[in-house]
Amino acid sequence: MQVDFSYIIWVPTALFASFLVVGLWGNKLKAGLSAGIATAAILLGAVLSYTAAFQYFFGNGLQQGVYQTFIPFTVEWLRFYDTLVIKMGILLDPISIMMLVVVTTISSMVHIYSLGYMKGEKGFERFYAFLSLFSFSMIGLVIATNIFQMYVFWELVGVSSFLLIGFYYQKPSAVSASKKAFIVTRFADFGFLVGILLLSYFTKTFDFQTLLSPENAAITQMAGLSFMGMSVLSWALLLIFMGGAGKSAMFPLHIWLPDAMEGPTPVSALIHAATMVVAGVYLVARLFGLYVLHAPDALAVVAAVGAFTSLFAALIAVTQTDIKRVLAFSTMSQIGYMMLALGVSNYGGAEGLGFTASMFHLFTHAMFKALLFLGAGAIIHAVHSNEMTDMGGLRKYLPITHITFLIAALAISGIPPFAGFFSKDEILAAAFEANKLYFWTEWAVAGLTAFYMFRLYFNIFWGESKAYAHTPHESPISMTVPLMFLAAMSLVVGFIPFSHYVSPDFMPFETHFHWNIAIPSIAIGLVGIVIAAIMYLKPKPLAGNLVKAMPGLYRLSLRKFYMDELYIWVTHSIIFNSISRPIAWFDKKVVDGSMDGMAWVTNKMSGKIKNLQSGQLQQYAFVMISGVLGLALFILYWVSR
Amino acid sequence: MIEGIGVTEFVVVSTLMFFAGVYGFIVRKNLITILMAVELILNSVNINFVVFNKYLYPNLLQGYMISLFVIGIAAAEAAVAIAIILNVYRKLQGIDVEHVNTMKY
To answer: Over 90: is that where the pLDDT of A599 sits?
Structure first.
């Protein structure tokens, strides 16, 4: 029996309508009403997404052992000419349905949480309008039927991220952070666009289904064409990955993500932890068939970038003191895991474990990272500071936040039975199959993750109580309910047998539990936690002594390996001074100069000539008569000759 | 025909008058004097018309007619010019031609 999935169209429609209503008339409505409209829209979206997921995975999604791809809705958007048509539509397959669930779940939780967190803020309706816009764009991105639609929504997501990071637009730091995020991701999207153009130039299509169908001759032809040592397809996919790396804050395009924490904390939870930043992973997963079958070299780059970023970000996270920044670097590190898992994955059956693990980790990470951010928001709400040094002993004041934060920290550290353990185990297993170096790197990163998460945890909730301006109190119920819901999710989602639902070839397969990988990974996680406990559980001079022992390394990590400085140096010294300045000089002196010169010559000439016009009547007469006489004499002479 | 006086003598006189007028036009600063110099030029031309008519084409009348015409024009011109000069005097408190230069450039 065929199920009609066309009701999914109501998810983006409701969100867009809510954006329009709240955005246009928000200042006339009561604050509570506009928030209510936005929350109702996203809750409707969540209900529809869950229905779709249920119908798909337990209904007719699986036919003859293969998950089907449904396109319940498609509309022609732009027709340039017959071979260039851009469509908008809905594509449902296991990963897009999974993303629908993730986005609507996290977004609903953030909408509810913000009722308490943003209460009384200036621009409360504006915040909800932007949240609706973001959710709409993100939904549009995940259900895209073609790469152009994805690109359009990709940019919309970028815009809403820009708007939300710069939500406190009176703060100069928020303004510059939003600009930085927009410019860096826009720069990366330039690569994405070029990649799309390359791909569609050769294949004459934007459609994912046509692109991914195995009998697409244009793809094979493209994979055969060589350009500078790689096939054209690899170049196109690498450029597309560049866009993904920009959105997903992969090294070296990661510099915007830590600064993006200037936005309100619920925004960080929604956009910069759970949904938008995994868009890059989703993009690679969406085109995974092309990467793995036709461009393994591009996939190797994905793996290397992912592995490097996960290590790099974890090393930075160890020394940061702003709790949101620690979480931001942890997000980068975890997305690195997902990229690596995609990069080491193969196609078909159990070989596709990496792909499944990546999507699994995306799913579980969304839950516990959103929980961590919302928990951090509750803490910031209570103590009015982002700095870890201003916190301590908070477990007495914030019991619910404490327990949920602990659950999330255990989940991200890979301690069973929490969600992160299962997905991380699969990623490590996939890495172990593919490349031992990646495996040991990620194993070490797992230890670092456990260490910095528990450094955060102990510093916030244990240690000595600081002198607070007023006694910290537990957050209102609208904030604690999402925390508890996400904590429950972090506990249970790990038990979902993901390989039954998501695989690169749409065929379910069985995974085994890898004791040989799980035991070392649990061990390193516990070691990280124990070290953190020794250093931070009670106030001790040990951490300070370590800093004194290794000042260079500490500064390197604290200053984020000087990446921001490197960017400034590259842009200012190299691009501005060596390229822009000579070009500006050429423009000002040569191009403008020639035009200015012509005007100058005309002006000077006229200045000289106009002095002849003295206004002296007799002078004119004298000149005229002299001229006539001269002419007459000349003619006389000429005639008489 | 006037006995003993040929065309040449008349032409010499009219030429002298003409250049006297041109000289006066260029050199004098007073607008009234310049107007007088212009009258000299016009009248030297009138002499030429009359003399050439009388000496070369005695049975025709065009030269006389043209000279009458010029006299009429000169009268009209003098009227207009004096009106202008009066206005210049009111405006600039003087009729020195060197001060009448506000229309330059």
So the answer is: yes
